[in-house]
Amino acid sequence: MTRLSSHWGKALVAAAVGLQCGLLAVPAAAGEHTETLSAFDEDAKWQGILGVRFLNIQHTALITRELVCQGGGRSSVCGGTSQILDTRQLAVKESMNVLNIDLRTGLYKDLELSLTLPIVFGWSTSVSNDDGVGQGNSLVDTGQNATSLFSMPYDSPSRAGVGDLSLGLKYAVFNQARNGRFPTWVVSFDYQAPTGTARKAGEPSVGSGIHQITLGTAISRRFGKWAEPYMRVRGNLRFPAGSSPFQNLVVTQTRVGPGHSIGVEFGSEFFPWREPTKEGSYVSIAVGVLGEYVFDGREYTELFDALGTSGCQAASGCQLTRMTRHKEPTGTTFVDPPAGQPRVTDGTTDVERYGRLGATVGVTYQPIRWVRLRLDFTYTRTTSHFITFADAGKTDLNGDGEIDHGKNGGANEFSPYYNENFDDYGRRFRVDASNSYQMLFSVEGRY
Length: 447
Known about the structure:
Helices cover 8% and strands 44% of the residues. The protein has helices at residues 2-25, 75-78, 304-308, 420-423; strands at 48-69, 83-108, 111-129, 154-155, 159-162, 166-174, 184-192, 210-220, 227-240, 261-273, 282-294, 297-299, 349-351, 354-368, 371-382, 385-386, 429-446. The relative contact order is 0.15. By secondary structure, the chain is mostly beta strands. The radius of gyration is 28 Å and the shape is elongated. The longest helix is centred in the N-terminal third of the chain and has 24 residues, at 2-25. The protein is built from 4 helices and 17 strands. The protein has one domain (2-446): Porin (Beta Barrel), CATH 2.40.160.40.
């Protein structure tokens, strides 16, 4: 009996050791949100991924405009009182299709390099009057050239082309697959170069015209074989390129380029059928919530193309698109030297700070170790904010406490991007009810 017990004890120990060795031979891989490729590793001489991601974005928004009520003016709207109202004016629909080509490669243990090249093959915007708005009551298109900012309805040309190339580095400071005492913690650096032709109103170019640096970190922890909660934080720093419409012209300018941003995402990945390993097949479902805060800046907005291609021209008696800095003061002839001629809007405008909130859900299927398929859906809601928000000027150069064209031969104190016709209090445009729906489908070949 004693010899039999000894025999079974040794067998159980051997089985336990064998099971442990087997588990170490095929360790659980990190979830997608903290996955990092490796090279020159014990069980991975080199890891690489070549993938394509098809992205479709549908965006809708309501555009309101401020209306100044003075006394009984527009009594049907103002109610006989003096006030400033936000009036519904425009409805915007935007559609975008992008094919991203991704190359990811391991450089060393838990150190990854990535390249992404976006190809846009359909990007258009349509702007129309909101329900109940027509030339008789519109604050945008009155039917008269001298008083119409731009004509309604408006359909932009379809944009297409190669976008901005992105380069990224990712490093896993801790890897739970290597040491189960710690979660997987990843830090990342991404640089988006302005390689695409910068956007111009009414033209098909798709580039952003900015240098963007993204600093990020993500952490996840596998619990058992069924769930891996995660958190990601990132910050975007955006700087105008020389070829972009975002130029720093004079000292009185208040904003130059798009605002920087910071974002966070929380969620969890679940594994209803097997957990991901470096060898096997699996299915995962990921759900999360996200938020982003964008600071004041100068941007392409929903009205970029409509404003930038406006038919409002001085030759036909319309002055609404001419920047206030370049207007002619009474009794003088004024042409601003930096512009060389009176400047009109190019469609970009100063934008008030805003936030985004959203939710995402995705399904991943890896049938064999060399192929992975993914389908994601994301919804985001953007907070209400002004999209014509420029200040008159930044510096009172002559010390008289006012922003003016230059009294007694002094310097012009107006910002070159301020237009009193849509940036002034009581005339501004605001984006409201802004919703974006994103669908992403990707196919990856893995080695």
